[in-house]
Amino acid sequence: MRAAVYRRHGPAGEVLGVEELERPQPGPGEVRVRLAVSGVNPTDWKARSGGAPTPVADGFQVPNQDGAGVVDAVGAGVDPARVGQRVWVYFAAWRRRYGTAAQYTVVPQDRAVPLPDGAGFDLGASLGIPAMTAHRCLFADGPIDGRSVLVAGGAGAVGHFAIELARRAGATVVTTVSSEEKAALAAAAGAHHVVNYRAGDAADRIRAAVPDGVDRVVEVALGANLAIDLAVAAPGASIVTYAAEPREWPLPVRELMTRNLTLRFVLIYTVPEPDLRRAAADVTAALEAGALTGLPTHRFPLEDIAAAHDAVEAGATGKVVVDVG
Q1: Which residues have CB under 8 Å from 149's CB, separation 6+?
Q2: What does the pLDDT read at residue 54?
Q3: pTM over cut 0.90
């Protein structure tokens, strides 16, 4: 099979290439997926660059966690009827050798989730890390029906799915963005209120939209945004962050305690398996209901895998996907 490969950490253009590899075989409890599309996330370029603690195993690594395609083989203990099933894939490269930037990948059967007929492969390949992270941030501290949610960075992939999942769950959704282009994307995703934080006092405008404060914050930059989060959080709210920043920030412990706020950190890879299965099931139910949509797509052929990684690292607005089929 054709696959993107790196054998050491470093810049995409220096370490990523496309090679012919032996097609992997599914072991017990695993399925093999003939991939059509691979999604690229920040976690993928960070792992490839060496910015995240992910050693290159067994001499090479096929990058990318997320993808979509069709099950073409199953291992022992897996229902043979799964062959031919359309699926979306998550965690393909998490502590495993074969990510989704290849024609085939092998994953535990739970990580190849049935893709509803109405959802295309591009959308399926866009889920994984972003949608699962959004789900965890929203629901780790309980239901949000009738509550208010602030999504920081509503035009990013996690923010996009957080808006859509929160809206589907019955929450009032406020989101912050940094441009009119991103405001349009957040509004299209269903946010009730969109605040450009570069145009005046963001906290004042969030409080005007939700006078009683927000009950849940889905945060992409905790240190930079904590002052805003504290200014708009309702008593007992949860501030949930899913991204690490280059510098350390001090925490106002007394204020957090006095207002009984919860500060939660999410790394989706280490979320307990029962919660991951629930997230995957809820994301799939939202797909079946037509409640999830894709962001504008930037397409690359497999041969341009380095350019695809560079586009995500540069902060491309929308979703970067790689055609691998």
Answers
A1: 138, 162, 166, 171, 172, 173, 174, 214, 215, 216, 217, 218
A2: 73
A3: yes
User: Residue 206: which domain range?
Assistant: 130-269
Euclidean distance between CA atoms 100 and 250, whole angstroms: 38
Residues 195 and 311 in one domain: no
Q: How far is residue 15's CA from residue 105's CA, in Å, rounded to a whole number?
A: 20
CA–CA distance, 322 with 325 (Å, rounded to integer): 9
Return the pLDDT at 57. 65
List the structure tokens of 41: 């996330």
10 Å CB burial of residue 123 (0-12, 13-18, 19+) is buried
Give the span between the Cα atoms of 63 and 173, in whole angstroms. Answer: 34
Distance CA 24, CA 227 (A): 49
Beta bridge partners of 40: 320
| Statement to judge: residues 202 and 245 lie in one domain | yes
Q: How many residues does the chain have?
A: 325
More confident residue, 92 or 52: 92
CA-CA distance, 277 to 291, in Å (whole number)?
19
Q: For residue 296, give both structure tokens.
A: 């504008």
